[in-house]
């Protein structure tokens, strides 16, 4: 387990910025952790372990240093992975973090929830609500109508275009959804 | 007619060749003639058969009788069963009344030494010596024995637990009902449905901001429950030895939104070394076991386990529980508890392990906080356990309508490695032992010599060597080593008041050790 270096940090923050925008400071700087019995819990940090990036509080990190590198499997919340090519992808486990701080959101109609959870992209006909000011290739978090986060992805169209589209057009390219916990448990 | 069918199908289900043969051969005898054969074995088996008929008929005709009996209350089984059997059918009343009388007679004769017999029936498919069958049924009265076996055949109802980190029970219930799932809220335990695997967590009662270790965490049902109860505060160490199960553990943790967990892949026995002794507030040990309690989920357990497997499991469990106790900090403000649970009903894995822990460490049993469930055994088949073992709890499928289970809650009284009663024992043991295992004695004494310098690193090293040698030993061997290392530990740490009583003994022991060390320093010098 080690902290991220410069390049890695840049990559991670860029990706996160796509989804949460300015709320990034919430995640990184001002977060207060309530974990651990210590009086001063400290903030959350990112750590890298076996090409996976974890978002953990400092008190947890201190405790985890006892565990040998081969034996440490996971800590805190995983937010993403680095590929062999060096790119950073956010994984579904980061959903809670993203959803809490998301700038751009899409709400799905109940009928198209299941389709999204099976791995399909979001079509215009399935969109219930959508936040304003979404540009193309913005990160979008997908919710159900009852505000349950379902996944996240890339915006294929801006909000403005979205209104003009036909009902079968793709609005959001799906990157990750919570159905993956069942479908691809082994890959996580 | 229904009775015959019932009897025929159950032997097949149970896959006991011997049992089945005897059953089928005796079935006609029973129906026509209520006299029982001479041999004690057959007597018991035919009794069981007769009771089997009764309980089978209960099952088929009564349907919900055994289930109606329990519902989470420790019911009075014998009364219920008698009522059920009386009311069930009128096909062969005379046979039944005879059977009942005989059953009652047997019940009166037997003490509470049952389960092993029934479990062994289940476990030993091959021809076993008569000694296994003759003491049947020792844990249950015969009537109940059949109930238990029958209950193992049926699946337990699936229970759900709401992930309180993400939703509320009402919301979840609403959504599931909309999808057509039949839901019956079991509202007895404060807002949550529970099945036997949640009981140990309820017994553990983790508080917020504590440090908790879950020593055998996969696939993560209990760990996530602990995290939910702690509301994601504090720290949980989730440990799992088998790599293949780690993936499901991490996936479940992330899916449930648990953020305060460190997942590691150690052998549970190594955890005190990794985490440091006396460093956590509570430990949950859901020990790997033979699985005799969950036969309803996995029928292969009936055929694949024999007495040797139980022995191995028990040995591992004893080591794990000692490791668990060593990790806990007795002086922690809010904790100092260890919860030990298994999904097995075998005494060797349950009461025997707890008794061992009571002897080896300064812990005591406290009430689990679960108000139903049967108390554990304080004696069984000639073995006498510590009287406080009645604070442990056993759960049975036929009584509580959940999987067979055992839960015990221990409180660590102090960070000593050894109880005062043991000190006098070790004096005797150390004297006699030298002949037994010389090489390890050498290791031990070398460690003693080093420890006299009272350095922490050395202490750890000694523990390591002790543990390594321990693993190869019989219980007697391990007891000695643990005792010896415990002596060292005590010398090193601050002393609670109990030490005052034991000081004279310790001085005696020190003297012994000095003498030994002098004898061994020569060999040490020679080896170096």
Automatic annotation (TrEMBL), chain A:
Organism expressing this protein natively: Rehmannia glutinosa (Chinese foxglove)
Family: Belongs to the NIP7 family.
SMART domains documented for this protein: PUA
Domain PUA: from-to ranges: 104-179
Complex and partners: Interacts with pre-ribosome complex.
Protein name: 60S ribosome subunit biogenesis protein NIP7 homolog
Pfam families registered for this protein in UniProt: pre-PUA_NIP7 (PF17833), UPF0113 (PF03657)
Functional summary from the UniProt entry: Required for proper 27S pre-rRNA processing and 60S ribosome subunit assembly.
Coiled-coil regions, chain positions: none
Location(s), subcellular: Nucleus, Nucleolus
InterPro entries for this protein: NIP7_N, Nip7_N_euk, PUA, PUA-like_sf, PUA_sf, Ribosomal_synth_fac_NIP7, UPF0113_PUA
Keywords: Nucleus, Ribosome biogenesis, RNA-binding
Principal subcellular localization: nucleus
Automatic annotation (TrEMBL), chain B:
InterPro entries named among the record's database cross-references: MeTrfase_RsmB-F_NOP2_cat, MeTrfase_RsmB-F_NOP2_dom, Nop2p, RCMT, RCMT_NOP2, RsmB/NOL1/NOP2-like_CS, SAM-dependent_MTases_sf
Subcellular location: Nucleus, Nucleolus
Coiled coil: none
Region Disordered: start-end pairs: 1-100, 440-528
Principal subcellular localisation of the protein: nucleus
UniProt-annotated binding residues for S-adenosyl-L-methionine: 216-222, 240, 267, 286
A Pfam family of this chain: Methyltr_RsmB-F
Stretches with biased composition (Basic and acidic residues): 497-528
Record's keyword terms, sorted: Methyltransferase, Nucleus, Ribosome biogenesis, RNA-binding, S-adenosyl-L-methionine, Transferase
Keyword Transmembrane helix: no
Residues of the SAM-dependent MTase RsmB/NOP-type domain: 192-413
Ranges of Low complexity composition bias in the record: 468-479
Active site: 343
Domain of life: Eukaryota
Composition skew (Acidic residues), residue ranges: 31-57, 75-98
UniProt record similarity statement: Belongs to the class I-like SAM-binding methyltransferase superfamily. RsmB/NOP family.
Full protein name: SAM-dependent MTase RsmB/NOP-type domain-containing protein
Species of the source: Rehmannia glutinosa
Lineage: Eukaryota, Viridiplantae, Streptophyta, Embryophyta, Tracheophyta
């Amino acid at each position: 387990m080690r902290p991220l270096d410069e390049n890695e940090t840049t990559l991670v923050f860029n990706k996160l910025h796509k989804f949460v925008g300015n709320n990034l400071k919430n995640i990184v700087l001002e977060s207060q952790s309530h974990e651990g019995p210590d009086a001063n819990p400290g903030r959350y940090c990112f750590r890298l372990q076996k090409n996976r990036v974890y978002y953990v509080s400092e008190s947890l990190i201190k405790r985890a240093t006892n565990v040998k590198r081969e034996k440490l499997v996971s800590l805190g919340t995983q937010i993403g992975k680095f590929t062999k090519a060096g790119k950073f992808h956010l994984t579904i486990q980061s959903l809670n973090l993203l959803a809490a701080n998301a700038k751009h959101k899409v709400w799905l109609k109940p009928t198209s929830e299941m389709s999204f959870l099976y791995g399909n992209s979001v079509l215009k006909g399935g969109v219930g609500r959508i936040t304003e000011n979404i540009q193309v290739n913005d990160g979008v978090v997908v919710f159900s109508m009852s505000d349950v986060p379902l996944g996240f992805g890339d915006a294929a169209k801006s909000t403005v275009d979205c209104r003009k589209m036909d009902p079968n057009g793709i609005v959001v390219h799906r990157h990750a959804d919570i159905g993956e916990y069942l479908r691809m448990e082994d890959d996580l | 007619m229904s009775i015959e069918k019932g009897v025929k199908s159950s032997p097949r289900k149970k896959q006991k060749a011997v049992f089945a043969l005897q059953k089928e051969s005796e079935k006609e005898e029973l129906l026509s003639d209520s006299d029982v054969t001479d041999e004690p074995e057959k007597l018991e088996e035919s009794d069981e058969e007769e009771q089997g008929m009764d309980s089978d008929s209960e099952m088929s005709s009564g349907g919900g009788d055994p289930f109606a009996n329990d519902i989470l209350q420790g019911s009075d089984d014998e009364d219920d069963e008698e009522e059920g059997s009386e009311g069930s059918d009128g096909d062969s009343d005379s046979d039944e009344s005879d059977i009942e009388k005989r059953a009652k007679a047997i019940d009166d004769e037997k003490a509470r030494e049952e389960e092993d017999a029934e479990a062994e029936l289940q476990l030993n498919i091959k021809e076993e010596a008569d000694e296994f069958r003759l003491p049947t049924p020792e844990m249950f009265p015969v009537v109940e024995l059949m109930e238990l076996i029958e209950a193992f055949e049926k699946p337990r109802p699936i229970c759900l637990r709401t992930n309180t980190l993400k939703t509320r029970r009402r919301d979840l219930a609403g959504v599931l009902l909309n999808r057509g799932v039949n839901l019956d809220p079991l509202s007895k335990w404060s807002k949550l449905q529970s099945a036997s695997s949640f009981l140990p967590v309820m017994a553990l009662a983790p508080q917020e901001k504590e440090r908790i270790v879950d020593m055998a965490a996969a696939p993560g049902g209990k760990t996530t429950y602990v995290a939910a109860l702690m509301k994601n505060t504090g720290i949980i160490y989730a440990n799992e030895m088998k790599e293949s199960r780690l993936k499901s553990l991490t996936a479940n943790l992330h899916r449930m939104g648990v953020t305060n967990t460190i997942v590691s892949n150690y052998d549970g026995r190594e955890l005190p070394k990794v985490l440091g002794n006396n460093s956590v507030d509570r430990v949950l040990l859901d020990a790997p076991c033979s699985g005799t309690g969950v036969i309803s989920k996995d029928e292969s357990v009936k055929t694949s386990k024999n007495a040797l497997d139980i022995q191995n499991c028990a040995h591992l469990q004893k080591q794990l529980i000692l490791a668990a106790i060593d990790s806990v900090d007795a002086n922690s403000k809010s904790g100092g508890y260890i919860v030990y649970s298994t999904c097995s009903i075998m005494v060797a894995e349950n009461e025997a392990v707890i008794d061992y822990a009571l002897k080896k460490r300064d812990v005591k049993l406290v009430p689990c906080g679960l108000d139903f469930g049967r108390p554990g055994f304080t004696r069984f088949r000639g073995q006498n356990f510590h009287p406080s073992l009645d604070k442990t709890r056993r759960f049975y499928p036929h009584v509580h309508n959940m999987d067979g289970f055992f839960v015990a809650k221990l409180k660590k009284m102090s960070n000593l490695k050894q109880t005062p009663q043991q000190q006098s024992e070790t004096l005797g043991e150390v004297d006699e032992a030298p002949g037994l295992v010389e090489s390890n004695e050498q290791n031990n004494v070398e460690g003693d010599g080093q420890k006299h310098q009272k350095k922490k690193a050395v202490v750890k090293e000694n523990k390591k060597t002790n543990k390594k040698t321990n693993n190869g030993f019989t219980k007697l061997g391990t007891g000695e080593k643990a005792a010896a290392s415990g002596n060292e530990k005590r010398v090193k740490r601050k002393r609670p008041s109990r030490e005052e009583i034991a000081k004279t003994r310790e001085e005696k022991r020190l003297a012994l050790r000095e003498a030994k060390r002098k004898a061994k320093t020569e060999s040490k010098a020679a080896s170096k």
